[in-house]
Amino acid sequence: QVQLVESGGGLVQPGGSLRLSCAASGSIVSINTMGWYRQAPGKQRELVADITRGGSTNYADSVKGRLPISRDNAKNTVYLQMNGLQPEDPAVYYCNAAIVRLGVTVYWGQGTQVTVSS
Question: What is the pLDDT of residue 94?
Fold first, then answer.
């Protein structure tokens, strides 16, 4: 059994910052790519950023330079530092991870809400 547990969402003023965390636990051999996605009301879920085990990153154009992704392989944890939050950023943020057990399976977290409001 594998679980991804997200934390760090909440309400922040425009221009403010949050740090999202997602920790994987359970029967894990290793984790390949980990990523963050978001889904706003009425919109499809979209990639925000992802990061390979070796640290190579990939970002959506809309967040480059504002929402750096990082990970701690020893802790099976991925982070999203959310700086300069803008009106287009509110959404439910989901993490995912390609986890190696007998094969490779992609797991999703339950989601954490990010709200931007003055």
Answer: 98
pLDDT digits (tens, 9 = 90+) for 47-106: 999 999 999 999 999 998 889 999 999 999 999 999 999 888 999 999 999 999 889 999
Residue 38 burial (CB count, 10 A): 22
Cα–Cα dist 82/106, whole Å: 24
Whose structure tokens read 């154009």? 61
What is the distance between the alpha carbons of residues 6 and 109, in angstroms, rounded to a whole number? 6
The amino acid sitting at 2 is: V
Q: What's the half-sphere exposure (Cβ side, CA atoms, 13 Å) at 6?
A: 27
| Among the listed residues 101, 52, 59, 100, the one whose alpha carbon sits nearest the alpha carbon of residue 78 | 52
